C-alpha cells in the first residue's frame, strides 16, 4: 500500500444540501457520531435560501476538520449536486445521504465489515420510515422497516438477474441505499441533471456493473416523510420525469441480456406499468384520457415484455390483486380514450 493509499479515506459520505435548515444538524450529527478517521464527510450547498449554508458553517466550526464544505454558483438541482460531490470526493467507497434523512446507529460499522472485504463491490441496505409527527399507527406499532431486496441476505451475491428483479419489483432504486466502490461509477456514470427521479437512471447501471453484491436486511437510514419533499408535491413535470427515467432501461437490459432471465424482464415491465399508474393518477381522476394514453404508449415502449406476459408473471408470484389493478387500469384507459371526442 502506498502512502497515498494509506491516507485515502475508506468512505466518502456525500450530502447534498438545499433548504433543509430544520433537518441538517440531525443528519450531520448522525454521521459524525459514527464516523472514524477514515470517513470523509462532504456537504454541497445548492444555493439554499433558508439558512442551510450558514448552518453548514456552524456545524463545521463545531467539528473542526471533520466536514468539507462545497458551494454551488447557482441552484442546479439534486443531480448536479450529487455529481459535484462525487467528483470532489476521495473515498474508496461512496455513500450518498439526503440531508433531510439521517443514519441509524451502527450503519457505518455495519458497512465497514463488508467494505473491508476484497470480494464485495456493492452493499445494499434497508431503511426505516421516519415521521417527525407520527400518527397513532406509528406510535402504536413503530416506524415501518422497508426492505429493498429479495436476494439472500449477508452473503456475496453474483446473480445479476435476481438482484435486478428484486430491485425492480420493490421499486427500490434510490441511490442512498446502495453503497458502492468508486470504481463502479467510473468516469461516465453520473446523475442526469435537471430531472426528478434521477436515481432510477443510475441505480440499475450501478447494480449491473457490480460483480459481487451483499444485501444487509437492516435499516441503516431513517427516511424522513415530510411535507415539501419531491414525492409529497406531485406535478405533471415530476410525473413525466418519472416515466422518462425508465427510457434507458430496455436498452440497458438488452445489453446485459446474457446475465438476465425472463423474470427480470417481466419485473422491468411491472415497474413500467406501476410507474404509469402513479404518473397518471391525477390525469385519470380529471378524466384527461389523452394524457393517460400518451403516458401508456411511453410505458409500453419502456416494457421489455408484453402486458400479458407481465400479468402472468404477477399471477405466478401470487400478486393477483396487483395484476387485477393493472389490467383494469389499462382497460379503463383504452375505453375512455376511445370514447373521448376528437380534439379533447
Automatic annotation (TrEMBL):
Q: Where is the Glycosyltransferase 2-like domain?
A: 12-140
Q: Where is the signal peptide?
A: none
Q: What single Pfam family name could you report for this chain, choosing any that match?
A: Glycos_transf_2
Q: What is this protein identified as? A: Glycosyltransferase family 2 protein
Q: Which organism is it from?
A: Pelomonas lactea
The major lineage groups are: Bacteria, Pseudomonadati, Pseudomonadota, Betaproteobacteria, Burkholderiales
Amino acid at each position: 500500500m502506498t502512502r497515498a493509499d494509506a491516507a485515502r479515506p475508506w468512505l466518502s459520505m456525500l450530502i447534498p444540501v438545499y433548504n433543509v435548515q430544520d433537518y441538517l444538524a440531525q443528519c450531520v450529527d448522525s454521521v459524525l457520531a459514527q464516523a472514524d478517521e477514515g470517513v470523509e464527510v462532504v456537504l454541497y450547498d445548492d444555493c439554499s435560501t433558508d439558512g442551510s449554508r450558514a448552518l453548514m458553517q456552524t456545524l463545521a466550526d463545531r467539528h473542526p476538520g471533520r466536514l468539507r464544505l462545497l458551494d454551488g454558483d447557482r441552484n442546479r438541482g439534486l443531480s448536479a449536486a450529487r455529481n459535484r460531490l462525487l467528483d470532489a470526493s476521495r473515498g474508496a467507497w461512496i455513500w450518498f445521504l439526503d440531508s433531510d434523512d439521517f443514519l441509524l446507529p451502527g450503519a457505518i460499522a455495519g458497512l465497514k465489515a463488508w467494505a473491508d472485504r476484497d470480494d464485495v463491490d456493492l452493499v445494499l441496505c434497508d431503511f426505516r420510515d421516519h415521521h417527525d409527527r407520527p400518527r397513532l399507527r406509528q406510535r402504536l406499532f413503530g416506524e415501518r422497516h422497508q426492505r429493498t431486496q429479495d436476494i439472500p441476505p449477508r452473503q456475496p451475491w453474483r446473480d445479476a438477474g435476481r438482484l435486478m428483479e428484486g430491485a425492480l419489483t420493490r421499486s427500490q432504486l434510490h441511490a442512498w441505499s446502495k453503497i458502492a466502490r468508486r470504481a463502479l461509477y467510473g468516469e461516465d456514470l453520473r446523475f442526469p441533471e435537471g430531472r426528478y427521479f434521477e436515481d432510477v437512471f443510475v441505480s440499475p447501471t450501478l447494480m449491473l456493473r457490480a460483480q459481487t453484491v451483499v444485501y444487509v436486511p437492516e435499516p441503516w437510514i431513517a427516511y424522513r416523510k415530510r411535507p415539501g419533499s419531491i414525492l409529497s408535491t406531485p406535478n405533471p413535470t415530476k410525473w413525466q420525469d418519472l416515466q422518462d427515467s425508465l427510457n434507458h432501461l430496455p436498452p440497458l437490459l438488452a445489453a446485459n441480456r446474457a446475465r438476465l432471465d425472463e423474470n427480470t424482464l417481466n419485473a422491468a415491465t411491472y415497474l413500467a406499468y406501476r410507474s404509469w399508474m402513479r404518473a397518471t393518477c391525477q390525469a385519470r381522476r380529471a378524466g384527461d384520457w389523452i394524457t393517460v394514453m400518451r403516458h401508456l404508449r411511453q410505458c409500453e415502449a419502456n416494457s421489455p415484455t408484453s402486458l400479458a406476459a407481465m400479468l402472468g408473471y404477477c399471477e405466478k408470484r401470487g400478486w393477483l390483486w396487483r395484476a387485477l389493478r393493472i389490467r383494469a387500469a389499462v382497460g379503463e384507459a383504452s375505453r375512455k380514450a376511445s370514447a373521448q371526442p376528437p380534439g379533447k
